[in-house]
């Protein structure tokens, strides 16, 4: 016999199901009067520092059909590369930026949209700078455990080239699945759940 | 910060997720998963700041009735119809430490098994006094509680005759973005749990049982509401004794 480690098991995941919006974006689901606003609907205010950007896209299934019942959350650093979190010990993040957003894909078009700012660079575990990126979490009916990926920016070619996480992707043809195309301040990021262009998902 | 008193900042990376305990992505018995599950291997990544940090939700976001689904959508003086229950428990991490300040959001069908949603087509009636959503934040000891009506089971299009057991959906936000979790709570003694294709996506019976709330007779309020106890476990963090040091420092 040995001593017990006393660890517990993580609660197993179950799909968010078709009605995730009732719980997480009730106003969007037309359940009015319970919460004033949907959490994560607004990430910035007038005083937020940094370059304003818009990110839109869709989540596509194995046939290329957009999911109309998915929900995305994003988490990102502020313009200086600091997270608005108690676990951020390098400094104080912009108090006018939450860093966290939540959006349901549209029930008709499947489009999502985030109005945010371009994040700064954050160090990797060994101190090397990562390229600007946004963490993305996707849940929906048919997804048994939330999917994690990252959004990088097409106009950060030099930073992307030295990013320690992108460098870990063995099949280089898959790197572009993580890179949002930009036109001015608008970026486009489609997430492919399956197929030739399947997005790189992470076990984080 | 007031939601997390007496805690050192947490900077450890999370324990690797046990992906055998969780349901796999592809579970053909749950048909929708077939075209929505990634087919390529996940890229494993030990937590960076992007994964180990996470937003804080203060108690100030909560309204007075956010944790009372019997009343938070009801007309003044009225209440939702159904079996009155209290659901309570603790949010812990894999090291069995309480997780204070965790945001819990929950949603469910009404007592007849009907969701308030425009894509819902079950013929059971809506309850004009039931919205179906609520939220709360755990206290210093990781404890939470809310009041609701017991949801009904409902049929769903999968197999010809598939029904969901009574369940409450939970979304849990711990302290790091990598802890993000959505799951469902089932009720002790429900024979329908073991017939459900969504429950059956979980391979291990013991893992399913972790999602079954126990009838808590001790906390049942006489002449008012029965209690169910549902504890939730989020990923644990490594100790940082020999971490957060640059090479050579
Ligand atoms: Fe459900």
Automatic annotation (TrEMBL), chain A:
EC number: 1.13.11.3
Keywords from the named record: Dioxygenase, Oxidoreductase
Domain named Intradiol ring-cleavage dioxygenases: residues: 55-83
Oxidoreductase among keywords: yes
CDD domains linked to this entry: 3_4-PCD_alpha
GO molecular function per UniProt: protocatechuate 3,4-dioxygenase activity
Coiled coil: none
NCBIfam families per the UniProt record, alphabetical: protocat_alph
Family (UniProt): Belongs to the intradiol ring-cleavage dioxygenase family.
Protein name from the UniProt record: Protocatechuate 3,4-dioxygenase subunit alpha
Automatic annotation (TrEMBL), chain B:
Domain (Protocatechuate 3,4-dioxygenase beta subunit N-terminal) ranges: 15-48
UniProt EC number: 1.13.11.3
Domain Intradiol ring-cleavage dioxygenases: 52-236
Keywords linked to the UniProt accession: Dioxygenase, Oxidoreductase
Record bears the keyword Transcription: no
GO molecular function: protocatechuate 3,4-dioxygenase activity
Family: Belongs to the intradiol ring-cleavage dioxygenase family.
UniProt name for this protein: Protocatechuate 3,4-dioxygenase subunit beta
Organism field: Shinella curvata
